[in-house]
Amino acid sequence: ANMRKLLKQANHELEEHRKTAARLEESERRNRILSEESSDLIHSYTPEGRFVYVNKAYADIFRERPENIAGKSLWDTFSREDADSRFAVASEVFRTGREKIHETSISLAEENRFYLTAVTPIKNPIGKVTSVVCTSKDITERKRAEEALRISEEKHRTYIDHAPYGIFVVNSDGEYIDVNLAACRMIGYSKNEILGRSIRDMA
What we know:
This protein is of the alpha+beta class.
């Protein structure tokens, strides 16, 4: 009786294992389809920095087929400095088991592309990180806009600083928030003495 009970329990556990494996396989299949259709760059690699998987968008950046990149290492794909930098971030995720988000870039023949990359740990049933999945969203246009704004602000700053006439900038409370050198000479105060004071204070 005990033997039959044990066999029945073993068969039940085996069936549950088969069902779990089937669900896992189906989930991986759906995830693979989603990643292949994604415009984000998606790839995963081992603790040694060797690619396990790359999606089509990632391979397209290098004008390669995904299967030609899988199995290679970071150092086969990037310069040593760039590969070391990427691997350092991944190593922290392998060590801590916590996701990390950072900015990366890929130097292409015609331009540099910038990405916001999430490095996510993949753990086995006992909680050990066996690989990381990197999902990179293209932020090149945002970076270009930030750079254009920085250049514009620098030009504006240069214009104000070197204008031959006094320029006073006040906020809604009538307090000075910016002045140029010509303005300082006009009223005989330094910039530090003027900023934060109101028009009434200087009257």
